[in-house]
Automatic annotation (TrEMBL):
This is tRNA N6-adenosine threonylcarbamoyltransferase. Its cofactor is Fe(2+). It is found in: Cytoplasm. InterPro entries: ATPase_NBD, Gcp-like_dom, KAE1/TsaD, TsaD. One of its GO terms (biological process) is tRNA threonylcarbamoyladenosine modification. It comes from the Bacteria. Gene3D superfamilies: 3.30.420.40. The keyword Metal-binding applies. It comes from Roseicitreum antarcticum. It is an enzyme of class 2 (transferase). Fe cation binds at H114, H118, D312. Binds 1 Fe(2+) ion per subunit. Residues 26-319 form the Gcp-like domain. One of its GO terms (molecular function) is iron ion binding.
Length: 355
């Protein structure tokens, strides 16, 4: 079974080919064309610019994905596309492109929830069996999910305001570092002293695994302003220490809330326990190490996909498409693009066609 995957829900245009047979699935190609330079001047992703860029880049990405896999559309068995959630212009561009290819080549079409793509990635990379506990932590999302099946997710808790990726990006912006902020803050933090600034760990005293990150961002802003007032600017060590302090606070919150989510998960699901992470922030080495330790303490298998499969990509969409196709979840030309689409709701086709 060979699927083409298409992803365009944020600021990466991506296409990939994944093949799954009896053995481990294979990623035959994984093309990601970022738009960082297009949005750099605006300090954030501009939806209108993103949508236009997706429209321009999608065809080429698909052709490159096929080329690199050494295939033509005749070798492909289906087209999977992110149908939401995300910036609606970009999602629409991807869905239109996928519909065109599916109709033109007479292939089945499968709409995929972007978050399900992230959440099912550990099955692509490590063949993880259901059920497992997943921490999905990215630019726009932060939640603990009990993954029970291809289309069965239970949300155990999550952020009540910002996502950590957003907090990383805003912290970078406050410290005049380039976007995307996550990798930049991580690089600065490497030489910083995490103990110099004690930043808040919000909601630690509240039971359950809900989280909050907006206060952390404000604390970075206040600390920065105090430093500037005191020294007339930010010195190198101020920046690296603040990055390290911020990263440590995020890691602490995620680790403590993971402990609680694991306890909830073990109570709900006595099957072979595993804890997996996905999403762009899972690329962070300090955060990964903290989560790995929490899993080890609880005696759980820990699975973290390789970095390029943690951030947005189309291989995860192709894979989720294969998973859905295998259990008969396909879509038709009524597939709708959805700006919002919580994971514990149901298939796109069912809502898109009003059934
Ligand atoms: P979503 O998947 O929620 O729609 P997204 O598509 O923006 O959001 P991803 O591509 O999964 O998210 O992740 C991007 C986010 O991950 C950005 O906020 C980025 O700063 C963050 N990120 C990437 N690498 C790192 C890192 N090394 N450390 C911390 N954060 C990181
Ligand atoms: Fe994402």
């Amino acid at each position: 079974l060979t699927f083409l995957g298409i992803e365009s829900s944020c600021d990466d245009t991506a296409a990939a080919i994944v093949r799954a047979g009896r053995g481990a699935p294979e990623i035959l190609s994984n093309v990601v064309d970022g738009q960082v330079d297009l949005h750099a001047a605006f300090g954030g992703v501009v939806p209108e610019i993103a949508a236009r860029a997706h429209t321009e880049k999608l065809d080429l990405c698909v052709m490159q994905a096929l080329d690199q896999a050494g295939l033509t559309l005749r070798d492909v068995d289906g087209v999977a596309v992110t149908a939401g959630p995300g910036l609606i212009g970009g999602v629409l561009a991807g869905v239109m492109c996928a519909k065109g290819i599916a109709a033109g080549a007479g292939l089945p079409l499968v709409g995929v929830n972007h978050l399900a793509g992230h959440a099912l990635t550990p099955r692509l990379t490590d063949g993880l069996a259901f059920p497992y506990l997943m921490l999905l932590v990215s630019g726009g999302h932060c939640q603990f999910l009990l993954v029970r099946g291809v289309d069965e997710f239970t949300r155990l808790g999550g952020t009540i305001d910002d996502a950590p990726g957003e907090a990383f990006d805003k912290t970078a912006k406050l410290l005049a570092l380039p976007q995307p902020g996550g990798p930049m803050v991580e690089r600065e933090a490497r030489t910083g002293d995490a103990g110099r600034f004690r930043l808040p760990r919000p909601l630690m005293d509240r039971p359950g695994c809900d989280m909050s990150f907006s206060g952390l961002k404000t604390a970075v802003l206040r600390t920065r302003d105090a430093l500037i007032a005191e020294h007339g600017g930010l010195r190198v060590a101020d920046r690296t220490d603040l990055c390290a302090g911020f990263q440590a606070a995020v890691a602490d919150v995620l680790a403590e809330k993971s402990r609680r989510a694991i306890a909830q998960y073990l109570a709900l699901s006595p099957a072979v326990p595993a804890f997996a992470v996905a999403g762009g922030v899972a690329a962070n080495q300090t955060i990964r190490a903290a989560l790995e330790q929490v899993a080890a303490e609880a005696g759980l298998r820990f699975v973290a996909p390789p970095l390029r499969l943690c951030t947005d990509n189309a291989a995860m969409i192709a894979w989720a498409g294969i998973e859905r196709f295998r259990i008969g979840l396909t879509d038709d030309m009524t597939l709708a693009a959805r700006p919002r689409w919580p994971l514990d709701q149901t298939s796109p086709g069912m809502l898109g066609s009003g059934k």
